[in-house]
Design brief:
Length: 541
């Protein structure tokens, strides 16, 4: 460590100030954060943006729960984001490496510190995988299991590499990746070292690990550590040693390796996770950073929230903002205005008309066209379906009049007559406010699935089309969007445009709303359309 700080309650100096100082030191190669809360969010985001711009990895371990995750539970988006949503959004926005326990944090820091300057690929986005060398067939299989669970790919080695390995291995051993080298036990240093180098020379390999238990040998043999040292001299690619059992590591041998720049990763699981972080960093393109260092929001003070970079607003944008704020005010009286608000930001929404009598309902249906949906428009009902306030598949005036009479008897005369959306995969989109980071975009499974499965991704605005597509790619329902089981694939371009439109809304109206739900957004082959919306205005600010 060049600097280690326990910032305590941060009553005078908060973590971002220490981070800024550390980032200014030329010897800093990696930054580690262990945080319980986000303080001075503007300055923190400035520092993270600067680190991302300089290619310095930042490893984050969080403890406790975000206050933002407990807020806005009246909206599905707030509950869906959960206590971890703010950390997830911050991680995504600035390309942080998220560790989930101290062991993963330690192994990741050691790997970045000792091997982060080495490169196993030729350009951004070209990560292919790792290679590992073992002295046990069972541990070879175990490594493959753990790597798959950790999301670490093994490189597909070439036929030339396989042929060279076959020359080195004892008869009966398979030249594959991961590689079991143990046969007769002869010439251990030379055999293991040459196998490591052979794998490192393969163009598809980004990093190499010697995965053996670095325990004190009864006969004093030090072949494993010498093989690792030999290989490190002959390759510029990252190389590490992974030992399965931290409690059994030969500390003297580990010190020798670490002193020579070779990390000793203390566990197969944490070692694989550390390698995944390294591969992610090597293959990462420059992240899009909300706001940016030194923008007006950052300079405003500790409570500033960074949004899209400020600039001269066009007359069209000014006009849209004025219309949006008027619709936001009207939205407290009718859901039709909330759907109209979405359209202002390019998010298609079903036609909806507010009615207060049966005759008005019939006239609205004539303009919209059957079949229609009848919904309660009574103020204060956040989730209409839960209150029995939605009647579907109404195909005639007679059905509509009967449905209106039944609905108003229970929930009052205020209602909406809505267009029926075509079938499709249902998503939930939303905006939820974190006290420190401001508005966050939530994308998840919609309809009844919103409460049945924890399927969501969270991001900070602005969100590009590429980033929106990446959010969709993280969802469990992505297979449904692609047309699973013979279904027609959804128009993903329309879906991503809805997400970016919502991010624009959050950027412009983020100070005016506490939460916003679009549930469901029905996604089909001919587009994406919002069927229902809930907007909760921000008060007391």
């Amino acid at each position: 460590f060049t600097l280690a700080v326990s910032s305590g309650q941060e009553l005078v100096t908060a973590a971002p100030s220490y981070l800024s100082y550390a980032l200014d030191q030329p010897e800093t190669r990696v930054l580690a954060l262990v945080l319980e809360a986000v303080r001075q969010p503007g300055q923190l985001r400035d520092v993270l943006a600067s680190a991302a711009g300089r290619g310095i990895p930042v490893v984050l371990l969080t403890a406790g729960s975000s206050a933002g995750g407990r807020a806005m539970v009246a909206a599905h988006s707030g509950a869906l984001a959960g206590t971890d949503g703010a950390w997830e959004a911050l991680t995504r926005a600035y390309g942080l490496h998220r560790a989930f326990d101290l062991a993963e944090l330690a192994d990741t820091l050691e790997l970045f510190s000792l091997q982060g300057s080495r490169r196993g690929r030729t350009g951004p986005g070209s990560v292919r995988g790792i290679a590992t060398v073992h002295d046990s067939g069972l541990e070879r299989a175990h490594a493959a299991d753990v790597a798959e669970h950790a999301g670490v790919p093994f490189a597909a080695i070439s036929d030339q590499t396989r042929a060279r390995l076959q020359e080195l291995l004892d008869p009966g051993l398979l030249p594959a990746n991961p590689l079991d080298v143990w046969g007769t036990g002869a010439d251990t240093r030379e055999l293991f070292g040459e196998c490591l180098v052979t794998l490192a020379r393969d163009e598809s390999v980004d990093a190499v690990a010697l995965a053996v238990d670095l325990v004190p040998e009864l006969d004093g043999d030090d072949s494993y550590q010498l093989a690792a040292l030999d290989a490190a001299e002959l390759t510029a690619k990252p190389i590490a040693l992974i030992s399965n059992l931290a409690c059994a590591i030969d500390q003297a041998a580990a010190a020798t390796l670490r002193g020579s720049g070779i990390p000793v990763l203390e566990g197969m699981r944490t070692g694989m996770l550390a390698l995944r972080h390294l591969l992610d960093h090597q293959g990462r393109t420059q992240p899009t950073k909300p706001g940016g260092p030194g923008d007006a929001a950052s300079r405003a003070g500790n409570d500033a929230v960074i949004g899209p970079a400020a600039g001269p607003a066009s007359p069209g944008a000014i006009g849209r903002l004025a219309r949006a704020r008027e619709l936001l005010a009207q939205g407290e009286r009718t859901g039709a205005a909330q759907l109209a608000l979405l359209r202002e930001y390019g998010i298609p929404a079903v036609r909806a008309e507010q009615v207060a009598t049966a005759d008005e309902a019939v006239a609205a249906a004539a303009r919209i066209g059957y079949p229609v949906v009848l919904k309660t428009d009574r103020p204060g009902i956040a989730h209409k379906s839960d209150a029995g306030g939605v009647i579907l598949r109404i195909t005639s005036d007679e059905q509509l009049v009967a449905a209106y009479a039944e609905l108003t008897a229970r929930l009052g005369p205020a209602a909406l007559v809505c267009e029926t959306a075509s079938p499709g995969t249902e998503l939930a989109l939303g905006v939820v406010r974190d006290p420190a980071l401001g508005p966050m975009i939530v994308v998840g499974a919609g309809g009844v699935l919103v409460e049945l499965i924890a399927d969501r991704a969270v991001a900070l605005p602005p969100v590009s089309q590429e980033q929106a597509a990446a959010l969709l790619g993280e969802l469990k329902v992505r297979a449904l969007l692609a047309g699973a089981r013979g279904g027609k694939p959804a128009d993903l371009g329309a879906v991503t445009r809805a997400i970016t439109g919502l991010a624009e809304l959050a950027g412009e109206l983020g100070e005016d709303i506490d939460a916003l739900d679009i549930n469901p957004l029905v996604c089909g082959p001919h587009g994406a359309v919002a069927v229902d919306a809930l907007v909760i205005r921000r008060t007391g600010h």
